[in-house]
Amino acid sequence: MLAVQQLEAGYGESVILRNVTLEVKQGEVVCLLGRNGVGKTTLMKSIMGVLKARKGRVTYYGDDLTKRTPGQRAKRGIGYVPQGREIFPQLTVFENLLLGLEASPEKGRVVPESAIAKFPVLPTMYGRRGGDLSGGQQQQLAFARALASQPEVLLLDEPCEGIQPSIVDDIRDVIRSIKSDGKTAILLAEQSLEFVKSVGDYFYILEKGSVAWEGNCESLSDEVIRRYLTV
């Protein structure tokens, strides 16, 4: 479905990713692990086209997206919840959700029920500005905004960062719900090992910008965790 092949990317003269290859299949939650600074967010930005790849390819159903813009990738069916949420603080909750429809083939002013049903608190806040929401509520808004276009691939970059445990549980439930439908692929970058093990099907660990290990949950042993994830 979504494949990254020998990807190299970075900022200025610095190379952050080196020969990264991974695959995300339909209906799977693929988790991206690694210590801080190993390139997880850089990889997410490169897949979405926010950061241009220097080498390698990003393909979607065999279609080469490497030179496509973020908008073009979104319209092809890739949704993105960036680290830090990046909602528009001066716009209302409803206006933020409408922006998610820009990537939909059928633009309109009706946010799909499937997007907001997963976060029932949002319709009660439609008139509030995004910047007035709590961190957890902003994360829910960013998630719903990405779901508004009904993507087939969803990129989630640190969705549990800095939010209260109750919202983390809500996000876990949403990911499991999406997974159970079997239609959407998810690439999840997250620091919480407990969280990713509760939702993930397959795991990649980055070290120094390269894939150092990959495997399923059963093979994610204590030795692997100590070697690549323990600080």
Please, could you describe this protein's structure?
The strands form two sheets. The protein has a six-stranded mixed sheet with strand order 6-7-8-3-9-10, sandwiched between helices. The protein has helices at residues 40-48, 70-76, 93-100, 113-116, 135-147, 165-181, 193-199, 222-228, and strands at 2-11, 14-24, 29-33, 55-60, 63-64, 78-81, 153-157, 185-189, 202-207, 210-216. The protein has eight helices and ten strands. The longest helix has 17 residues, at 165-181. With 231 residues, it is an alpha/beta fold. A hairpin with a 2-residue loop joins strand 1 and strand 2. The model has no long low-confidence stretch (mean pLDDT 92).
Write the layout of secondary structure elements.
Blueprint: E1 2-11, E2 14-24, E3 29-33, H1 40-48, E4 55-60, E5 63-64, H2 70-76, E6 78-81, H3 93-100, H4 113-116, H5 135-147, E7 153-157, H6 165-181, E8 185-189, H7 193-199, E9 202-207, E10 210-216, H8 222-228
Parallel strand pairs: 3-8, 3-9, 6-7, 7-8
Antiparallel strand pairs: 1-2, 1-4, 4-5, 9-10
Helix pairs in contact: 3-5
